[in-house]
Amino acid sequence: MTSQEPIKVLLKGMADLQESSDHSDLTITCGSDVYKVHKAIVCSQSEFFHLTCRNHNDPDGDFKEGKTGVVDIPARSDIDAEDLKYVKLMIHFLYHMDYLEVETAKIEAGTSPSVSKDYAIGEGILIHHAMMYAMGDKYGIPGLKSLARSKFQDTWKHTAAGLVKAIKIAYTSTVDSDKGLRQVIVENLYSNVPNGLSTWIQMPELDECIKDLPELSYALLHKQLSLPY
């Protein structure tokens, strides 16, 4: 048995638990979606679920979810609601240590991001990784944030699809002190194209995005001046 075998066995066991719902002791609902999950798995990885599921015997357990065993995440209908597909991916991550790709990007290995056509940055896969980073931040799941950041970085080496919306998500869904994904964005705006930032600025959609986000403008200026940001 190799050193990786026990990890594979553990991950398979966790995945099987999600599929079968055996020994489930917590229900998560989001719209019409219902997930039978396990406190030992979700609460150990998520600060949100850890706090929410404290029972009434805990002096700090004032949430009704700790008594009912049901956590309802509002489906998208207001500013605090979630997109059902991203809740599904978040729960998938908690059992698989990875999340499924919602959209398959056709990436040609060894190519740099396309910056010649505006549509290349309008819609696409970077949005999904930015959203998963935001979900990891909101629900206190450090592992999900780390994975989403890595996927964002690796994907951007090959495609800029969804870049503008992804940038907006990164700068509006996390606090200013959270530099994880923001740093990736700033560094890549300079390093992933031959002529640096000037090449991106020629794209109206991205130029407008930078104007609308003072924090990003500040970071880009400091990067250009070799100052900390």
TrEMBL record:
InterPro entries: BTB/POZ_dom, SKP1/BTB/POZ_sf
BTB domain mapped to chain residues: 24-95
Short name of any one Pfam family annotated for the protein: BTB
Listed PROSITE patterns: BTB
Protein name: BTB domain-containing protein
Organism: Aureobasidium subglaciale (strain EXF-2481)
